[in-house]
Amino acid sequence: MELNGPDLKWPGVLVVGALLALALAYAVYRLMSRRQARASAAVANSGALTELPEYRRALRRHRIRMAVLAASAALLGGAALVGAARPLDTTVDKPQSRSRDIMLCLDISGSMAAYDATLVSTFKTLVKSFEGERIGLVIFNSSAATVFPLTDDYDFINEELDAAGRALTGDPAYDSFFAGTFNGRGTSLIGDGLATCVSSFDKVDLQRARSVVFATDNHLAGRPIIDLGEAAALARTKGVRVYGLNPEEDGPDQEAADMRTIVTSTGGRYFAMSDQSAIKDIVGSVEAQEATLIDSASRSLHSDDPTLPITLAGIGLVGVIGATRRWAS
């Protein structure tokens, strides 16, 4: 954040006020000159009076008081004018975001029905572990649908994950959550789902660390357009690491072994959901990827700063009151 210094919200007020003050001062000067000319009269033998030390001291004090009164009034009026122009402090904020993108990829096919709500809860725990990374969510069955694109609005992310949890626990008010996931042939088209997740990253021109947290049991039921091996190859081409999270592994099985091979080929890691350290290890693996800070568009921030004009106006007011009281005495 850079400080640009003081500024005025309405500088025109200062210009107009200064012109009016000059006009008023000139009018007062002309009026006093005319009165002085009309009131002047010759007084015989006044020289002896004006040479008295007491007279000279009184005249000197009077002139000082009038000078203080004039200066204080000018200070009070000028400070009030500056205050009316709304002094501001202007700073230029250059937001920065981390260059890590994380796509949450969830299989919502029938074989995953018993696990999906728990997986969404797992995703929420993952989100709490990140700060500044952009996160998105894609769900898939016979076709894939984006629930929300990459964003670093964590309040929004948590709201969407809460809605996903309600939908996956059978709340009919959230049936629209599944829209767009039944457009293909068959169910649980794993390769198509992963390929969609991998293709959901934007800003391909930037060197951003990209990760997919891929939650599936790898139980294929249909003919995908892209098989899992091809989706993994696409991930490697785009520099995306895939972290597999299998909720149904119960001892060694071929589907789990295939999934492990696929995700590790991208530079990612494989976890069984029963693994108590899975979340911690996924977070650690994602954060281990080098990330640079990216500058977002600059924006100017303005805040009122009336301290100086209020202080000067207070000094001027004290001077006016003090000089007036002493003059009246």
From TrEMBL:
Q: The VWFA domain covers which part of the protein?
A: 101-286
Provide the leader sequence positions. none
Which InterPro entries does the record match to this protein? VWF_A, vWFA_dom_sf
Keywords in alphabetical order = Membrane, Transmembrane, Transmembrane helix
Q: Which PROSITE patterns match?
A: VWFA
| Residues spanning the membrane | 12-29, 66-85
Q: What is this protein called?
A: VWFA domain-containing protein
Organism whose genome encodes this protein: Terrabacter aerolatus
